[in-house]
Each structure stands twice: as C-alpha cells, then as structure tokens.
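Researcher: Next sequence.
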Amino acid sequence: ENLSFWELESIARKLYSSSLETALFETDALMALLHQHAGTLALPTEVAHELNNATHLLRQSISLIEKGFPVIYATSLLHGSLQHLESVKNDHRFFELPYFAPDHYLAVFSPLVLPLLLPMIVGLVREVKRFRELQNKVDRC
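Model: Next structure:
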C-alpha cells in the first residue's frame, strides 16, 4: 500500500522534532565544551569546518521549516547536520592539550634564564648606584 504525502509528512515531522532536539543538544554540548575549555582544547581547522557545516545545515533546516517547505526536505538537512556533529565528536584530533602548571614552567626555564638575568640585574644595580653617586657629585659642585 502506498503512503500519501500527508502521511509521509506526519512521519517526517515526528522524526524531525526528535532529531532537531538531538542536534540542538549535541551542538549545545560541543559549544559548552569549547567555551569551558577554550584555552586548553586543540581545534584543528578541519574540525572547525565540520562544526561550522553542522551549524549551517541546522540553520538551513530550521529556515526551511519556517518558510513552510515540506518537513521531508528539512529532515535531510538536519540529518546532514547530525552527521557533521558526530564526525566532530569522534574526531581524534579534537583533544585537550596537555596541562603545564606555572611551577613546571618555572622548574624548566629558571635554570636557563636565571644565569642570564642575575648578572644583568647585578650590573643594573651597580649602574644605578654609580649614576646616583655621579648625580650627588654634580649637585655638590
């Protein structure tokens, strides 16, 4: 038995609403993750493009529904968006960068920097003292 267009549209509308909820939830979760760990996440360009494509398809899908187009067309765009979101979530290049506390940087760079800075600081102190002595001599004269 053949299904009529309104029956297909009814099925697609139900599928669309559940898929839209899933897509919005996934997008919110990814955006919250990016916002929370903005400084510590590695987001390669290709992964960012996938995320942009997902949000673009999601916007197009919602726009088609708002313009009154059949839900079947919007559902295909929505599923494309879900596929892009899944590829972002499962991408191995989307990972958290290793964390280095400030004391780790201090432990690594202090043996390199202190031998350079210490003579410079001692020399600067000597020059300031010598400059003050010269200023005092000039003021006395």
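Model: The longest strand covers residues 41-42. The beta strands are 41-42, 95-96.
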